[in-house]
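TODO from last week: model DYW domain-containing protein.
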Amino acid sequence: MSMKTPQSRNLFLSLLKGAKTQSQLTQTHAQIIIHGFQNDLSTVTKLAHRLSDFKATCYARALFFSIPKPDLFLFNVIIRGFSNNEMPKSSICFYTHLRKNTALTPDNFTYSFVLSAASACCDRSIGVLLHGHAIVSGYGSDLFVGAALVDLYFKFSWVKSARKVFDKMPEKDTVLWNSMISGLMKNCCFQDSIWVFGDMVRNGGTWLDSTSVAAVLPAVAEVQELRLGMEIQCLGLKLGFHDHVYVLTGLVSFYSKCGEVERAELLFRDIVRPDLISCNAMISGYTCNGKTESSLRLFRQLLASAERVNSSTIVGLIPVFYPFGHLHLTNCIHSFCLKSGIVSNSSVLTALSTVYSRLNEMEAARKLFDESSEKSLASWNAMIAGYTQNGLTEEAISLFQEMQASKVAPNPVTVSSILSACAQLGAISLGKWVHELVKSRNFESNIYVSTALIDMYAKCGNIVEARELFDLMSHKSEVTWNTMISGYGLHGHGLEALQLFSEMLHSGIRPSGVTFLSVLYACSHAGLVREGDEIFQSMIHDHGFKPLAEHYACMVDILGRAGQLEKALEFIKGLAVEPGPAVWGALLGACMIHKDTNLARVASEKLFELDPENVGYHVLLSNIYSAERDYLQAATVRQVVKKRKLAKAPGCTLIEVGGTPHVFTSGDQLHPQSTAIYAMLEKLNGKMREAGFQTETVTALHDVEEEEKELMMKVHSEKLAIAFGLIATEPGTEIRIIKNLRVCLDCHTATKFISKVTGRVIVVRDANRFHHFKGGVCSCGDYW
């Protein structure tokens, strides 16, 4: 047998380092045994390290257990190897073995590697426990451990915990700063990511490197801060990072997302030898700016150059941002993915299902989702968001519950989508449950989640809770302000909306067209004519916005609701653009309120010409004739609807009791407590008549096709829901209902009387706004 010499050891270490295949490692291992180095820790440790590189984890495990007394270095290599090979449980088991069965003490590398493994585990408590171990062992302030902890908490979306670890570190290095910037960006805390980068620069920029610049650019792109991105580009140029391929690639993505695709092209050409990642960024840049032909051309060039495209190439090519008109292209890409085997990739599946969802091809999207063997969090999110965006809220909620049962932990994107579904459906109980989930997951700091919570509470009738959450937010985006202003408008709180708009301007947040639309909507529902006109003029002259059809419609609505119908008509005639259905529809709605049949004819003629398939305009005109007791004309309009077979959505009302939704339709007798509900209605009718209530039979004949007359033993769905609420809830508690159509005059009057005779507060959300009934008075002031 050969002598064991340092030269022999060095030879084996060199052979292990240079091995290109697992077979070479196996042959070298045989020689190691022959030459008596099988228990030499430095040689065995290097072999274990290289086996992990080739994903030969079973081999590495057997090698480890062949060593009588492994040292800490070997333990660390094995723990890290299993972690890097996506075997976190095995990694953590070796850590446990180290603590329980040896006299060795874990060091900062041990904790860093095992924390990395814990970040991939479903059980988040393991990471917290390991954090405690690290602190007890004296490594709580270690930079290596700190970076691993920050990464772990960000992967769990525990932003506050990550921030706390970062802030408590006495010293910070480049890796820690970059982990913080990147982690905040990945958790959609874009503004926070930018601020941390700013702190890094303000602290002298000693630790700033090219990775720091590349990490912050996606966050800047998300908030569309073009000027700031240009400043970061200049900083990178000054520090000598501009020729780094991944910095240039980051800039290509940044300018593309900011709509500056020409600048992105120039930067792409600056890359001497664009790699696949750079090409993917440019393909994605073209696609997200609607330049489909350019993205396809670059994709074909890649294929022609024999470059092997990957899943990121395909995701960039899929027209997620401009899907309309590209169903055929999406089908072709789908076919290419099937042929090339890329379709099983979760990112590709998610992108394809997103496009199908946006094209309202929900069956195709769900088929893709169901066929995927391993459903990623992103694929769950895409499917839930697709259902929500297409108004299929019950399916969205059902899928979310299925996701919970599958033990898939939601992230801020999931929560934002499901809160949107709750808002649409008015599911306050589920919304509150999700709010508790947000607290338990430490998602409150996420601006999208907080904004979605505000929207949910506002649309579920609790405007006070919405405002409290708004005030608690330290950072607010333009969308956050818009959501709160819109919420006030929905509840008829016009003055509060105007005050908040003023605060928004003073805060330095630039309003958008949506902001002005929300403020004008609020003015409309509160009868604030002068204020609405001032806002409209300011939008044009002070802020330089060109009004859209929706802004014009809001102004017509403001004037019309206030009874200034002739002025509204003059406003329409003075428009520089051809008024569309939204504008004429607003005028027709105002004619309904003020019973102006002459102007109603003018508006309806335009509407029947512009939007002939919309049955709602025919119903409104019929109602106007009915209110004027011109039943012949009303019947004529209704005959037109029947002859043309125009269908309208049936009226229905939802009430949630004890977390369970109950839906009623007109004359509904299918509810298990139907007998008790109708008995309650009879009782209410008696009390209401004594209080002076008279049924509004004129509009009851024409408001809704399915809801004819109380005299025919049919009652509107909202009355049934309120009666059930009175039976099923404790005396004195608030009753909340949601109607899918505009509440009719008779039901509005009846609800005022019901709130008076029962002493209950009744909150009604109809298709237009909220009505808060209390003591016989409605918050809308009969102005809806």
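Done. Residues 700-714 have pLDDT under 50 and may be disordered.
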